[in-house]
Amino acid sequence: MKKIHILLLKAFIRPFIVTFFIVMFILLMLFLFKYVDDLIGKGFEWYTILELMFYASAANVSMALPLAILLSSIMTFGTLGENYELVAIKSAGVSLQKAMRPLLVLIMCIAFASFLFSEYMLPKANLKFGSLLWDVRNKKLSFMIKEGVFNNSIPQYSIRVDKKVGDGSSLEGVMIYDHTGNNGVAKIIMAKSGTMNTTSDQQFMILKLKDGIRYEEASGQGGNYNPRQQLTRMRFGETEQKFDLSSFKMNRTDENSFRSNNQMLNLKGLTHKQDSLTKELDSIDRFAKISMGTYLKQNGYTKGYTKINIKPITFSKGVLQAIPVDKRASAVQEALNQAASAKQSLEMKVQDHKDRRTALIRIKIEYQRKFTLAVSCVLLFFIGAPLGAIIRKGGLGLPVVMAIVFFLAYHIISTVAEKSANQGNINPMLGIWMSIIVLSPLGVFLTYKATVDSALFDISAYKALITNLFGKKKKDKL
Prior knowledge:
Layout: H1 2-34, H2 36-39, H3 46-59, H4 61-82, H5 85-91, H6 96-137, E1 157-165, E2 170-178, E3 187-198, E4 204-219, E5 229-244, H7 267-298, H8 325-391, H9 398-422, H10 428-451, H11 459-477
Antiparallel strand pairs: 1-2, 2-3, 3-4, 4-5
Helix pairs in contact: 1-4, 1-6, 3-6, 4-8, 4-9, 6-8, 7-8, 8-9, 8-10, 9-10
C-alpha cells in the first residue's frame, strides 16, 4: 500500500505544480492585457510592474487552484487508466476509494492551506494590490515631446519642437509658451536648437536652448483709460529653461484608506463590519417605525391600521377660503416646499437604507467566500479523479477539454448565483454556495460510476448499444 500511495502522490504532484503555474501565467497575461493602457507609457520602473503582478497573482489563486486540482486529478487518473496501472491496482484488491485516500489527504491539506491563505494572506495582498493599482491608474503620462505637436503636460507651459535628432535629446525649432506670469500674457521663447536632459533625481527637466529670441509683453504707463503695452525682445546665444517634473512622479497612497473594503478584511473584520451595519439598519428601521406611528396617530389611525372615527376639521368654502387672500400664495408655496422637502428626505433615506442593505449582502458573500475556496478544491477533486478513471486518457488532450468544460460550468454557476445574491434576488449564503450545491451530486455520481467501472464516456459502448437496439427492432419487424 505504501508503494501505491507513493506512486499516486508522485503522479499527482508533478502535473498539479505544472498546471497551477500554467494557469497562473495565463491569468497574469490576461491581467496585463486588461491594464496595458494603464501601464504603458508612464515611465514605471520594472520593479513596480513586477510588484503589481505579484499582488495580482495572489488574487488569482482563488481561480487557479481549483482549476489546477481538477486538471491534474483528471490527468493523473487518466494516465493511470490509460497505462492499465489502475487496473493492476484494482486487481491487487485495492478499490478506487482506497487508492484515492492519500490524494484525498493531500487535497484536504491544500484546502486547509487555501483557507488560511484566504483568511490571512489574501486580504493583505488585496490591500497592497488595490492601493498600488489605484496609484498606477492615476499617475500622469510620462513627459514625451513629440515632433510638430504642442505638449501641455507640464503645468503653465506649452512646448513645441519641429524635429528631434539622434537619441531624442537634441531638438531643432523649439517654441515655448510660458504662462507663469501674473498678467495673463504668455512669454514666448523661440530657439533654433536645444538639448533636453533631466537631473539625476528625475525631479527637473533642463532645456538648454541656443540661438534664440525671447518675447515678453508687459503693461506700461498711461493710466487706466489709455494703457500702453510694452513689448520686450531679447536675443540670446545660449540659455537654460528649468521645468518641474514632480507632478509626474507616482505618489503612493496611504493603504489605510483602502482597508475598509470587503476584500481587504479577514473573518474578524467582516464580522465587526457586519455587526456595525446591522445596528445601523436596525436604528434606521426603528426610526421609520416611530415616524410611521406618529403619522398614523396624527391622521387618526390605530396601531392596527384601523381608521378611528374622528370628525375631521372641514371648511365650508375649502381650506384656501379660510386663508386671507394676501397670504394664500405664500401658504401654497410653503406647503409645496414642505412636501418637496419631505419627499427628498424620504428618497434619501430609502436610498441610504438600500445601499446599506446591499453592503450587508456583499459582506455576507465575502464572509462565505473564505470557505468556498477550500470546499471547491475538495469538490473538483471528487469530480476530476473519477472522471479521469472513467475516460482513461492522460496527457494534455482530452483531460484539458474535460477540465475546461467542468470548470466553466462551475464558474458560470458561481458567477450567476453571486450576481443574483448581490442584487438581493436570492439568499447570499445560497448564492455563494450554489455552484458547490449543484455540482456535488455530479461528484457523487462520477465516483460511483468510476467505482463500478462504468463505461460512461466509452463511445464504443454507446455504438454497441445503438447497434443492438436497431438490430432488435429489425428482428421484431421480420
